[in-house]
Amino acid sequence: MRTGLYPGTFDPVTLGHLDVIRRAAKLVDRLVIGVAINRDKGPVFTLEERVAMLEAECAPIAEASGTVIEARPFENLLMNFAAEVGASVIIRGLRAVSDFEYEFQMVGMNRALNDEIEMVFLMADAQHQAIASKLVKEIARMGGDITKFVSPAVAEALRNRFPSHAA
Q: Would you call 107 exposed, middle or buried from its count of C-beta atoms within 10 A (0-12, 13-18, 19+)?
């Protein structure tokens, strides 16, 4: 069974993330969505909320693809977590050249830590390349329309988080 790991903060999960998850599910038998505990980023949603959102959003993808998809929190080194879940491949999404520069540096460091785990990069679909969780949160905070960037359930969760600007 080939296991892949797709790590991120997912605060919140966007349509771009779901596009990468849908495509990654075609490459592996089991896909672990690693939900990073990143206190430095000051997440809008709790770890439990982010895991629950991912589980709900990924259930239809798992059913359609036949791939086992699970969301799991982690706070240790990515390569250690990958080994812990038995991943032979780490999936990373790319949106822009700036993403590539950062990921290029990370590949070198990660290969030095564990060269048995491959890194696979999936370009976000063109319609999702501009989507960033940080920008989605800012638009939601200011009462803007986020329905082009997240699922209806995630949009509702964001509206509930920022009720003073909800339309």
A: middle
Name the active-site residue from 92, 128, 133, 137: 133
CATH number for the domain spanning 55: value is: 3.40.50.620
- Assess if residue 32 is contained within a domain: yes
Residue 64 included in any domain? yes
Active site (annotated) includes residue 65: no
Active site residue 164: no
What does pTM read for this prediction? 0.91
Phi-psi map region of 86: left, alpha, beta (phi>0 left; psi -120 to 50 alpha): left
* List 17, 30, 50, 137, catalytic entry: 17
pLDDT digits (tens, 9 = 90+) for 7-60: 999 999 999 999 999 999 999 999 999 999 877 767 999 999 999 999 999 999
Q: Is 141 a catalytic residue?
A: no
